[in-house]
Amino acid sequence: MPDSRRYYPTLDLIRGIAAFFVLVYHVQHWLLGPGYAVNAGLAVDLFFCLSGFVLASAYADRFAAGMTLPDFMISRLIRLMPLVVVATVISGSYIWARTLQGRDATFGAELVTAITLNLISVPFFGASPAIGGPQLFPLNGPQYTIWLELFANLAWYLTSRLRWRGLNYVVAGVSLAYLALFGIGGDTAGTFWLGLPRVLYSFYAGVILFTLTEHRGTVELAAFGKAVFRACFALMVVTFALPLPYLMPWPLELAWIALLSPALVVTAARVRITGRTFLIATWLGAISYPIYILHYPIFCWMNGAYQIVFKTTNFMAEAAILLIVLPLASMMALRIFDEPVRAVTTAWWRRLRPLPGTPTRLGA
């Protein structure tokens, strides 16, 4: 059976750029900044579509070869959870430190519950504002997307066992209809259910796009396809970078989710890059997930220290510090903890249960 696993450096490039936009979006939101990157929350839908495309490339043949549900889900947990542990330790210790200083009235039992649920990436519906409620992951708000990602992974495995590719279109179509009617959400208890169609549409759109284009392999796009990629990439940058008061209306957000994000993914997958751009893309791809999952916990400590020293907050100064500190911290977390832990746990799991068609790229 042919091996459909490939590496898509241009997808890494856009994933990394989008992760930095998310960072700016959250910092200006948390610090009540001037409104930079107010639409960068839509990067979440791009991430889900990217995930569907790349996982279809990495696992479709292994599913056909008989990969079991435990094998698949353990491989996904090995990929995603080590840095979740790091993030939870950082943010949990921050909340605990504030409590010991008397700055927050946090009950020990609630903090222990939040830490426990964060460590296993399970939503916490009853979190108080003292520890970050009503966010479903009060110790690390962006982590809600990891829970949604794992939900989509599970759903995709189960639907793939039915061996009817048309089901992918049904799931995507129903999810898109639900989005059009009710909007997006998923990060708080009040919007929890809106996160499910959000992740299912974009993830299954990525899977569908891979199945439609897999026979073309890595053949480079023709001139028209490259022009479409450049246009979609430019629209991504403009969309994410628009400052207030340019918050996109819902019809345009839906157009990004339904059309532009998938078009960007499918065209980027067949754009070849070389030389320095390739090196930048691989670096951005490597640190995109650490930056995404660690930026809130690291920001909490940095912002707390800044307030202790200067008795105030400052968006420009703190954003500049974070843009320097976070990539360095992300690289350290990746090299010192994440990659070694994934290597050890992957080796252990393979000895216990050899995975069909094991990938050569760590954590594919």
UniProtKB/TrEMBL annotation:
Q: Write the record's keywords in alphabetical order, separated by commas.
A: Acyltransferase, Membrane, Transferase, Transmembrane, Transmembrane helix
> Which top EC class applies here?
transferase
Report the EC code(s) recorded for this entry. 2.3.-.-
- For the Acyltransferase domain, which residue ranges apply? 10-329
An example of a GO molecular function for this protein is: acyltransferase activity
Q: Where are the transmembrane segments?
A: 12-31, 37-56, 77-97, 167-186, 192-212, 224-248, 254-271, 278-299, 319-337
Signal sequence range: none
Stated name of the protein:
Acyltransferase
Q: Which organism is it from?
A: Methylobacterium longum
The organism that produces this protein has a lineage beginning with: Bacteria, Pseudomonadati, Pseudomonadota, Alphaproteobacteria, Hyphomicrobiales
